């Protein structure tokens, strides 16, 4: 990669390893006014003398405009269709109202210390929050019920109870590492660490242990599964994953894939050995039709799509989609309904009259399913991502490809139970199942299959048939100019299990029950990370997009990011310099320690406090007032727009 600068030190161009150049023009105030990448049309930006973005015009000529008050706070955002979102603020600059493009208004009230105390939505539903003397969130009340947190004397979360009455417990060692996770039925999973606080073992209540082994460079090289199967990771000199092998204890292959990479680290060729191979793709074309602004897909072949003013899919070829005023999918077709708590966590789903309750840990990992009466029917075990499914006393081990998609499940005897293969954008094309289970495409990181080609990715749902989300990106243009696109059209090298934040795969691996510590290799941040928020006046670092998380460099384990003040000062400089890379952060203070300490100050419900004693490891945020989990899942930070 090469960079060039103007005479005044502004980034003028960036040329990647393939020779593709991105050039920037600047206005009289030093702001980027246009960007051109390769042969693509330009992206134009207009700023006022104070450097505030007034308009953004994409490559198709669709313009989004912004208006501000005298304090520089965004008061209006008008989309290319001419629909406007408006915001109101109090004297302290806190957002107290937002009216979306459907005309629905959400109002927000605050405590004397600036915490969100109450929200009311257009349909009259309310969410209220209660804090203790230390300003820790202890109760959230919403239409689903009451969710509570309990802390120990050190301020660490030791118990959380959701609105369905399911309680999850947490235990720690002296270093703050999470050592025990207790499920609502009293079963406990134990975690062990090495001297560097890297996760080494995960042991369930039946003494089934998964072990992780690292090389001297700190790279995960071996995973020893509880059923005797093993996973080997191989890297090149740049710490990029080049081969991934799942073997049984007799050395027979369950799954293997090898990659060839280009100069930018993109996977250009794959050779695999698998229980199911993708079907041969037939040559052909599917014509796509868009609205005048070319922002919303209206047809794909014979299928048609319709949207509301907020850009949410309302009909796909006769199947109805219903959203609530908080922009959450609550209805699918005539017989499926979804239920969420005030933080946006999906607590239950009712399909054809049968209700399934979902039980999560503090990071949003699904740890159990229950029936309508609250009786647990399945447990899920997590370590560096999802490990196993336990039904009754029978355990099934997950096997994932380099994207984190489930390719197989094996039983205690290492025999194949389920197998899957996928199209590039995630549609399952071959499936062999002896048991139904929800984690298929990118399942290692919590993505759940809802219907054929439709996936629940926490913040929103993804339609793998057309490679697009069914609603706009909640973080706006922080996720890219196309508000519906999945991973920028690059599903071979990236995933987006949160629905908001694509991860470029060097590769990546999930964290234990709270977050990850990661050393992040350099990749241009550019405008993607600009205008990140330090949320709600808190010390938490808000960052938009963590790119190129390398499996080779990750450290899984405990805490919130130490050195929050240092991280925020770095952010104020780095995030406004498009020439900087993520490696320009002091990784020691930014993503430094380990996961369980994150639980020590974790806000279980995900909202609305972003202080958390600093920034949560693996958590990213945006100027829209969110915090986003890089791994694991619950929404942390300020309430949605």
3D structure, described in words:
- The strands form five sheets. The protein has a 26-stranded antiparallel β-sheet. A 16-stranded antiparallel β-sheet has the order 27-28-29-30-31-32-33-34-35-36-37-38-39-40-41-42, with no helix packed on it. Strands 43-44-45-46 form a four-stranded antiparallel β-sheet, with no helix packed on it.
- A hairpin with a 5-residue loop joins strand 15 and strand 16.
- It is globular.
- The protein is 3% helix and 43% strand.
- It starts with a strand and ends in a 12-residue tail after the last strand.
- The chain is mainly beta and 641 residues long.
- The chain folds into two domains: 1-72; 126-281 and 358-629, no CATH class.
Please specify the SSE layout and strand pairing.
Elements: E1 2-5, E2 11-15, E3 21-26, E4 32-37, E5 43-47, E6 53-57, E7 63-68, E8 74-78, E9 84-89, E10 95-99, E11 105-110, E12 116-120, E13 126-131, E14 137-142, E15 145-151, E16 157-161, E17 167-172, E18 178-182, E19 188-193, E20 199-203, E21 209-214, E22 220-224, E23 230-235, E24 241-247, E25 253-261, E26 267-273, E27 288-290, E28 297-300, E29 303-307, E30 313-316, E31 319-323, E32 329-332, E33 336-340, E34 346-351, E35 354-360, E36 366-370, E37 376-383, E38 385-391, E39 394-400, E40 406-410, E41 416-422, E42 428-433, E43 448-451, E44 454-456, E45 461-463, E46 468-469, E47 494-495, E48 503-507, E49 517-520, E50 549-555, H1 564-574, H2 587-590, H3 595-600, E51 619-621, E52 627-629
Parallel strand pairs: 48-50
Antiparallel strand pairs: 1-2, 2-3, 3-4, 4-5, 5-6, 6-7, 7-8, 8-9, 9-10, 10-11, 11-12, 12-13, 13-14, 14-15, 15-16, 16-17, 17-18, 18-19, 19-20, 20-21, 21-22, 22-23, 23-24, 24-25, 25-26, 27-28, 28-29, 29-30, 30-31, 31-32, 32-33, 33-34, 34-35, 35-36, 36-37, 37-38, 38-39, 39-40, 40-41, 41-42, ...
């Amino acid at each position: 990669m090469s960079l060039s600068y103007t005479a005044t030190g502004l980034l003028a161009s960036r040329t990647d390893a393939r020779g593709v150049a991105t050039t920037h023009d600047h206005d009289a105030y030093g702001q980027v006014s246009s960007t051109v990448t390769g042969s693509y049309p330009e992206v134009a930006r207009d700023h006022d003398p104070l450097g505030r973005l007034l308009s953004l015009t994409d490559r198709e000529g669709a313009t989004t405009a912004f208006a501000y008050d005298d304090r520089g706070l965004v008061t209006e955002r008008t989309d290319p269709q001419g629909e406007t979102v408006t915001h109101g603020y109090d004297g302290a600059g806190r957002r107290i109202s937002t009216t979306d493009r459907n005309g629905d208004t959400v109002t927000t009230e605050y405590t004397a210390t600036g915490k969100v105390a109450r929200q009311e939505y257009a349909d009259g539903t309310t969410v209220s929050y209660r804090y203790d003397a230390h300003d820790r969130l202890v109760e959230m009340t919403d239409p689903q019920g009451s969710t509570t947190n309990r802390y120990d004397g050190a301020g660490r979360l030791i118990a959380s109870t959701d609105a369905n009455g399911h309680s999850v417990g947490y235990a720690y060692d002296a270093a703050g590492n999470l050592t025990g996770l207790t499920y609502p039925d009293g079963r406990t999973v134990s975690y062990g660490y090495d001297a560097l606080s890297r996760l080494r073992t995960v042991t369930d209540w039946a003494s089934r242990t998964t072990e992780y082994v690292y090389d001297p460079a700190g790279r995960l090289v071996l995973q020893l599964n509880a059923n005797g199967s093993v996973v080997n990771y191989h890297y090149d000199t740049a710490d990029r994953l080049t081969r991934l092998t799942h073997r049984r204890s007799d050395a027979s292959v369950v799954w293997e894939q090898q990659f060839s990479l280009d100069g930018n680290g993109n996977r250009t060729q794959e050779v695999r050995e698998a229980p199911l191979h993708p079907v041969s793709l037939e040559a052909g074309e599917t014509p796509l039709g868009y609205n005048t602004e070319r922002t919303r897909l209206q047809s794909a072949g014979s299928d048609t799509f319709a949207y509301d003013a907020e850009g949410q899919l309302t009909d796909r070829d006769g199947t109805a989609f219903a959203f609530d005023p908080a922009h959450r999918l609550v209805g699918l077709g005539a017989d499926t309904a979804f239920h969420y708590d005030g933080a946006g966590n999906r607590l239950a789903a009712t399909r054809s009259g049968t209700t399934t309750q979902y039980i999560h840990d503090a990071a949003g990992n699904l740890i159990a399913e229950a029936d309508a009466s609250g009786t647990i029917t399945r447990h899920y075990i997590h370590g560096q991502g999802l490990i196993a499914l336990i039904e009754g006393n029978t355990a099934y081990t997950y096997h994932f490809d380099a994207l984190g998609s489930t390719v197989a499940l094996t039983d205690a005897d290492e025999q194949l139970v389920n197998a899957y293969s996928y199209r590039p954008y995630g549609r399952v094309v071959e499936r062999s199942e002896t048991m139904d289970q929800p984690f298929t495409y990118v399942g290692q990181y919590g993505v759940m299959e809802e219907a054929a080609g439709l996936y629940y990715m926490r913040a929103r749902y993804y339609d793998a048939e057309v490679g697009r989300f069914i609603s706009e990106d909640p973080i706006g243009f922080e996720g890219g100019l196309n508000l519906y696109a999945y991973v920028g059209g690059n599903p071979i090298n990236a995933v987006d299990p949160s629905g908001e934040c694509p991860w470029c795969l060097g590769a990546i691996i999930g964290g234990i029950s709270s977050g990850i510590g990661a050393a992040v290799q350099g990749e241009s941040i550019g405008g993607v990370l600009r205008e990140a928020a330090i949320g709600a006046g808190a010390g938490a670092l808000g960052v938009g997009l963590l790119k190129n998380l390398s499996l080779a460099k990750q450290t899984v384990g405990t805490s919130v990011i130490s050195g929050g003040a240092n991280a925020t000062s770095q952010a104020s400089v780095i995030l406004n310099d498009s020439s900087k890379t993520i490696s320009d952060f002091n990784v020691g203070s930014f993503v430094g320690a380990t996961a369980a300490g994150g639980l020590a100050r974790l806000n279980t419900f995900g909202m609305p406090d972003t202080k958390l004693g600093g920034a949560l490891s693996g958590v990213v945020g945006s100027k829209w007032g969110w915090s986003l989990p890089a791994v694991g899942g619950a929404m942390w930070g300020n309430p949605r727009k």
